[in-house]
Amino acid sequence: MSSSPDVPVRRRGPALEPLLLSDDDRAVMTRWARRATSAQALALRARIVLACDGPGVPSIVGVARELGIAADTARKWRRLLAEGLDGLANEPRPGRPPTIAVDEVEAVVVATLEEIPKNATHWSRSSMAARSGLSKSTVGRIWRKFQLKPHLADTFKLSTDPLFVEKVHDVVGLYFDPPEGAVVLSVDEKSQVQALNRSQPVLPMMPGMPERRTHDYVRNGLTTLFAAFDTSSGKVITSLHRRHRAAEFRKFLVKIDQEVPEGLDIHLICDNFSPHLTTKKCQRVGTWAAANNVEIAYTPTNSSWLNRIEAQFTALRYFTLDGTDHASHKEQGSMIRRYIIWRNRHADDQRLRAVVDRANAA
User: Fold this and answer.
1) Distance CA 127, CA 291 (A)
2) What φ, ψ does residue 233 adopt, rounded to 5°?
3) 284-333 residue pLDDT tens
4) What's the pTM?
5) CA–centroid distance for 219 within its chain
6) 164-204+215-361 CATH fold
7) All structural domains of the chain with their residue ranges
8) Tens digit of pLDDT for each residue in 133-144?
């Protein structure tokens, strides 16, 4: 029987068997289909199967149109359900199957973490390849996968101060809850600031070429920068000296007392460098502090990270000292003073504080 010329002939595909899910499988499919953010590919496959579920045989084209996908995609995942729920979760992938066994990967990782080669201090890709029988590139891929870097070593130092908790509590308390009518200053010195002068002029940066300077230099003197960081205003009080003894530190304390407005108590945060201490060995600092009603809080040993002035020293090096040449420590001191003047003028600028934080993190 011929069809009417006015009625288009619908091309039929192979007959589909009814897709009937068990109650347990339907519950799993429903849970997968409701995934909000993760495993969206699996959620789409579950929605395809749920759309095809039922006693009737829904049209693949209709399911695809309802879900906004290609008909081949709907047909593919309906067909793979014949393998069970694992058929939806594990899509066959092209390419050669892996040739490195899991046991071999585990052996490389365990040996890297727990053993040391006999003729070296750490593993190299060549030595690990010789030990494991794998290629150097395979060893490199395993190390990258597990983020192992045998050639690198970092440093650390834990404080053994018996009063660690008490000192941290005092210092952090001054930062977050300073006393009423008081100024909190984070104090330290940056010693051994060398005025270096390269033996030849610096070659400027050019496209494709970084700035270059000679490796040899002449030392033109040393400078010690004493600094006190006002934790409330962000300004810095500084003083330059040739040495960093208790005598110079006491002179700097006198300058602090002169620059802090009258009527404000002074609380200093210092580390445990001997010129800062108020012990019998350094009586001049203790005597001055008692006479001027100055309170000194000490950070725990090996805990310079608690002293906020350290971030200012990092910014000073980043902005002023790195990559510069100085014919004398006097010339270097002038540059440091200019930076401090500029820095205090912009102490309230939040962008400056953000740059200081980035410099400290670097």
Assistant:
1) 66
2) -95, -20
3) 788 888 888 889 999 999 988 899 999 889 888 888 888 788 888 888 88
4) 0.62
5) 35
6) Nucleotidyltransferase; domain 5 (3.30.420)
7) 23-89, 102-145, 164-204+215-361
8) 999 999 999 999
